[in-house]
Amino acid sequence: MALTAAKYFLDPARKSTAEDEARFFRSLKVRNRNSKQTARGRLDALNAMAIELLKTPGRRVASALDIGISSGVTTAELYDAFRDAGMAPSLVATDLSIYASIVHLSPDVRVLIDSCGDILQYDIHGFAVRPWRRRLDRFTGVSLFKSAIEKRYADAARKALKGGGAKADRVALINPRLAAYDNIELREDDLLKRNPEFASRFDFIRAANVLNREYFEEATLRAAVATLKSYLSGPGALLLIVRTNDGTGHHGAFYELGADGRLSEVRTIGGGSELAAIVDATEPAP
């Protein structure tokens, strides 16, 4: 069973293991229905490739952007890889949901709510109850139990948080090691909504396990790739688009922004990117 948010974030005596941490973040599903958990070391091979490319003579890396960081485990590992290679870029890490609040409705009931108002966890008498449902829940009666909890506590928690009618502790839904890095900027951001603050800002962008044809329509993917390109600092800047399959490994590519404003593939990963045709068709940057 996963830890409650109060136990994970607020208990000074907590001594959770890496397995406890993974189980906790895996139990949290954000608005896009993805869990917040990412396995340690999952992107290490890609980090090594990125470092090799970024150390090419004439290429600079003063700023980097990591998109869709989930729990931030692999972001911390990317930062460590930069540091171990003698690089010190400023790093911005984004996700749809980074910050949340633990709303204390009573001594025995707490609700974890993210900044979008979505319920991530109910804490009932110290037991963690996930709000999302599995198909099995319909046959075990758990679905009815969750419906009763939702009816009683969901709106009450939202109203209490909005109106200040209950104690609330703000927490960051990220790996503690990442939270300890003062020089990593955490931002709640949606790639599907272009952020003018990011325009022409980054020498390296990683979009790992964020964009794929299974979740997004063609037009949405085209817009997202165009947005990523608009965030690159200029000629020589690198973009990594990759998807990881637990059975077959990493598939994607590193792309370089050219002087003509187009992206060109500089290294193929596995079977290549499923978005290659979209990247190739993206209009040159202005």
Order of strands, widest sheet: 8-2-1-9-10-11-12
Q: CATH superfamily of the largest domain, please? A: Vaccinia Virus protein VP39
Shape: elongated
* Low-pLDDT regions: none
Strand content: 25-35%
The CATH architecture category of the largest domain equals: 3-Layer(aba) Sandwich
Radius of gyration: 20 Å
Helix-strand string: HHHEHEEEEEHHEHEEHEEEH
Account of the 3D structure:
By secondary structure, this protein is of the alpha/beta class. It folds into two domains: 44-97 and 174-281, Vaccinia Virus protein VP39 (Rossmann fold, 3-Layer(aba) Sandwich), CATH 3.40.50.150; 99-172. 31% of the residues lie in helices and 26% in strands. The protein contains nine helices and twelve strands. The protein has helices at 5-10, 18-26, 44-54, 73-84, 137-140, 142-163, 176-179, 218-231, 276-281; strands spanning 63-67, 90-95, 99-106, 109-114, 119-124, 127-129, 167-172, 184-188, 204-208, 238-245, 249-257, 263-269. It has a seven-stranded mixed β-sheet with strand order 8-2-1-9-10-11-12, sandwiched between helices. Strands 6-5-4-3-7 form a five-stranded antiparallel β-sheet. The chain is elongated and about 60 Å long. 36% of the residues are buried. The model has no long low-confidence stretch (mean pLDDT 90).
Please summarize what this structure is.
31% of the residues lie in helices and 26% in strands. The protein contains 9 helices and 12 strands.
List the main descriptive attributes of the protein structure presented here.
286 residues, alpha/beta, Rossmann fold, 5-stranded antiparallel beta sheet
